[in-house]
Amino acid sequence: MVIVGAGMAGVQTAVALRELGWREGITLLGDEPHPPYDRPPLSKAVLLGQAGSPAVDVRFDVDFEALGVDLRIGVRAQALRTADREVVTDAGPLRYEHLVVATGAYPVALPGTAGLPGVHLLRTLDDAAALRPVLDARQRVVVVGAGWIGAEFATAARQAGCEVTVVEAADRPLAGALPALVTAPMRTWYEEAGVELRTGLPVSALEPGAVVMADGSRLAADAVVVGIGARPATGWLAGSGVQLGGDGAVLADDRLRTTAPGVLAVGDCASFPSARYGERLLIHHWDNALQGPRTAAANVLGGDERYDPVPYFWSEQFGRFVQYVGHHRDTDTLLLRGDPATASWSACWLRDGRLVAVLVVDRPRDLAQARKLIRRSAVLDPAVAADSSVPLMSA
Ligand code: FAD
Fold it and tell me: What is the pLDDT of residue 54?
């Protein structure tokens, strides 16, 4: 059993295999130089530690030795030879009977900016460590991209006392993920936190000490943090017979099997067809990297489990706890519960009268109830669902 990628999904695959009774060897490869660790704190607690204080420990609480897992860190898979059932690594070839691909995603950089001093991405522990001094020195920061990571980094940087500007090519934050009605109140979150948000203008270049916008204007920046999305880290699978989609994700089936015999894929690197939502989903969130591995491990052990989760994620931004459960399309009916100008509210999406997704801002009860309702495809009365004084369960 070989698992490539020692992030959340790879580690959880190893843990699930042992829990479900896999008795043979497990080799877990990861190309980072650190013991496996959790990513969500990297844009939150890890950035906020004070200079000189002990670093937040983000390592997974897993005893790999006790689990009988041969963990090989600092080893990169370079290619896959499915005909020989062999992973080519920079430390030599490795045979497998079963292989789980869990190589996650890599952050997208602005073209031509790789290695420029003062330009940061935020994906790894090393990225977060490189950003700590920026916050400690209260530098002037420009964040490129008002997505989840951009908002979380801006939150931390403001809290540390940095002057922060967020620039976004779209006309609003989170334009790729949420409709305008839901993102409109988020502008105020930036304002209240003292973050300048500039939307509707792309960055044309980065220069030492400045971000140049498409209209020629320049924003002074001691540091630039680029948060414009992530792509599946699947380049090493080119030509292997493991089929990839146009988005670069491994095209897994509903059992998380790939097109190559004995090869499964989990987490940020793989998409899968969802019968629940009637489309293929590529999910770049933590819960998917936790749930998928259980199904993959069960199927390695001879099971025939379908993977069709109700997706879930959270984000902590500008003092708010934002949670989302389900999956919506632009064509679904959107209802607001509560006033988005207030501290807590929700948004619900209905398809053919059935609840398919909910976003909550500091309304944990709606989230808990929505999760149950979505699982059973409950039909809601739109008028009642839009009334925030009535529990969602009663709608
Ligand atoms: P990864 O965590 O990317 O792990 C894959 C591992 O494989 C990496 O260590 C990578 O270096 C390694 N690898 C890649 N290629 C190779 C190779 N060829 N050979 C060997 N190893 C390789 N989600 C939420 O729901 N809520 C949050 O608040 C949240 N916050 C986040 C904050 C940050 C800063 C980031 C970056 C992500 C956040 N996420 C959050 C998303 C969540 O962390 C990811 O969905 C999750 O880490 C995916 O796990 P994974 O194991 O699939 O991929």
Answer: 65
59 burial (CB, 10 Å; 0-12 / 13-18 / 19+) is: exposed
Give yes or no for a contact between 111 and 206, defined as CB atoms under 8 angstroms apart. Answer: no
Predicted complex: ipTM over 0.85: yes
If one counts every other C-beta atom within 10 angstroms of the C-beta of residue 309, the result is 18
| Shortest-distance Cα residue to atom 27 of ligand 1 | 40
**What distance, in Å, lies between the first and last C-alpha atoms of the chain?**
48
Taking every pair of C-alpha atoms in the chain, what is the biggest distance, in angstroms? 62
Atom nearest to 39 CA in ligand 1: 43
The fold of 109-226 is: FAD/NAD(P)-binding domain (3.50.50)
The position carrying tokens 């009977």 is 97
Q: Is the pTM of this model over 0.80?
A: yes
CA 297 to centroid of chain Cα atoms: 21
Q: Report the C-alpha gap between 385 and 395 in whole angstroms.
A: 5
Q: Residues enclosing ligand 1, CB less than 6 A?
A: 4-10, 29-32, 39-40, 42-43, 76-77, 102-105, 122-123, 149, 233, 236, 267-268, 284-287, 289, 313-315
Question: Tokens 């380049």 label which residue?
Answer: 235
CA distance 302 to 66: 24
Q: What's the pLDDT at 52?
A: 59
| Residue carrying the six token digits 């409109």 | 184
CA–CA distance, 11 with 17 (Å, rounded to integer) = 10
The C-alpha torsion from 351 through 356 and 362 to 368, rounded to 10°, is 130
Q: At 87, is the secondary structure helix, strand, or coil?
A: strand
Return d(Cα 340, Cα 355) in angstroms, integer: 20
For residue range 66-107, list pLDDT tens digits in order. Answer: 999 999 999 999 999 999 999 999 999 999 999 999 999 999
Rounded distance between C-alpha atoms, residue 343 and residue 94, angstroms: 53
CATH superfamily of 2-106+230-300: FAD/NAD(P)-binding domain (3.50.50.60)
Pick out the chain residues at pLDDT < 50.
none
